[in-house]
Structure formats: C-alpha cells, structure tokens
Write the structure tokens for this entry.
Amino acid sequence: MKDLELKLISELMKDSRRSDRELAKVLGVSQPTVTRLRTKLNNTGAIKEYTIIPDFTKLGYQIAAITAFRIQEIPSEEREKHKKKIIQTEEANPHANLIAVNGVGFGKDVLFMTFYKDYSAYSKANEQLRNIPHAKVDEIQSFIVDLNDKRNYRILSMNAIAKHLQTLKEEKITYWRA
C-alpha cells in the first residue's frame, strides 16, 4: 500500500465524516486525488465499512468481555451443520459482538469480544456458549471489563491505530497470513 493511501486511511480512521476537500487539505493533495484514492480503497476492500464508535455506556452497556475457548475437532462432514447451528443460535439470541475469530493463543482457538447490558446478560450468554456443540466448556475463559470504571485508559478507538499507520513506510508493511 502506498504512503498516501495509508495516510488517507489513517485520516479516515480518525474521523470518516470529513469531506474529500477537508481530507485533501490535511494530506496536501487535490480533492480529486482524495476522491480517486478513496474510491480505489473502497473497491479493493482496503476500506471495509464506515461507522461510528459510540460511548457504549450511554447505549446501556455496562460490561465488555473478551472470551476465549477451545473447540473440539469437528469432522469435515459436520462442519457446515455446526456452523448453521451457531448462526441459528446467534440469530435467536443476538449479542453485541465486536469481534468473533478463530486463532491461536493461551491454549484457545476461538476469541470474541462482546458488550453486555450487565453481568446477568453476560452470564446468560456464557451459558449459551456452553451449549454450543463441540465447545470445550471446561476451557472457556473471559476477561471482563466494567465499562464504567474511570480507570479505563481506552475502551475502543481507532485513533491509536491511525497514528501508528502514519509512522509506517511502504517497505515496512508486511502481512502475516497463517
């Protein structure tokens, strides 16, 4: 990715409401250049979505939890059935999932971060998790955050990533793929 593309993404991460004209002034290029680059980044999928980051406590959430667990090996002929079951469970019991991914670390292979109204809602969701086929229930662990705790440093923000992007040079960027 070119340096100007990274700078544009960084600026959009700080505030995606800005017009192409405003972004052009910050980047020191013309407005048509910004429009062309933004269109390219959208079309290539480098920009996935434009959104806001609300104050989750003002929306009624009191808890954020990062939960990790292990899934037993699922025979290939059962994987699609298993995936459908999880989707049905999520649709019947919607959660404010920020991220839900497969990975490796801490002896776990699934991680998700979710916002909850209160501890009772977190407990109910954890119980539903324990009923997912193939979940190793004895290996579920959570890190729970009280969103109202005034000692919290940064709940969720794109600004730190945006600032970091501005320090990168094209030759330093590599993508790790498993």
Q: What stands out?
A: The chain has two domains: 3-52+157-172, 56-146.
